[in-house]
Amino acid sequence: MNIITPKQLRTLQECGETTCLIDVRTPAEHAEMHVPGVHLMPLDRLDCNALAGSEGVSKEKPVYILCRSGARARQAAEKMEKAGFSNCVVVEGGTLAWAEAGLPVNRGVSKVISLERQVRIAAGALVLGGVLLARFVHPSFIWLSGFVGAGLIFAGITDWCGMGMLIAKMPWNQCADKSCCTR
After folding, report:
1. Is the domain 2-112 a CATH 3.30.10.20 member?
2. pLDDT tens for residues 65-85?
3. Among 67, 88, 161, 180, the one annotated catalytic
4. How far apart (Å, rounded) are the C-alpha atoms in residues 167 and 112?
């Protein structure tokens, strides 16, 4: 897996050297803001075989991968490399770094809460709920808070978040037009 900065990628785009640029965020995140010319392929629906069969895509040619900040792009690159893609390039800092660099983005009209913030809200609500239930219902509910804490530690160590994957599948993180998630 290679890494490229947003400005380096923009230079390649201007020279016409990029053919495959994919965004592995949720459809709702993509609709809020995305890099022009990127193709949406959410991480939870990433089909490497279908991607390899797409027009202009080759397992030997560079595939540039974006997400919000870089973590999901690295996961996608690892998955693609296991499927035989030899030149996966992660855009350092993702869409946020692209926008912060002053490069052009397409902005939608809706403002969605990022997947990362949704996970923080859900984890906080579960921890608070576990503490309140332990205090007012039964002391065993404290294990709910412990379970969430252990999950957050696991996610931090492994860079894999089950809660994030589950929240990404929620209806508010999907687009009504399923064709938006294909090449």
Report:
1. no
2. 999 988 899 999 999 999 999
3. 67
4. 13
pLDDT in tens, 94-135: 999 999 999 999 998 767 788 888 999 999 999 999 999 999
pTM for this one?
0.73
Average pLDDT over residues 34-60: 88
Burial class from Cβ neighbours inside 10 Å (0-12, 13-18, 19+) for residue 64 reads buried
CB 38 within 8 A of CB 21: yes
- 91, β-bridge pairs: 4
Measured CA to CA, the distance from residue 118 to residue 152 in angstroms comes to: 13
The reply to whether 67 belongs to the active site is yes
The residue extents of the domains of the chain are 2-112, 115-173
How many Å apart are CA 109 and CA 98, to the nearest integer? 19
Q: Is the dihedral of CA 29, 30, 35, 38 positive or negative?
A: positive
151-175 burial, b at 16+ Cβ within 10 Å, e below that, comes to: bbeebeeeeebebbeebbeeeebbe
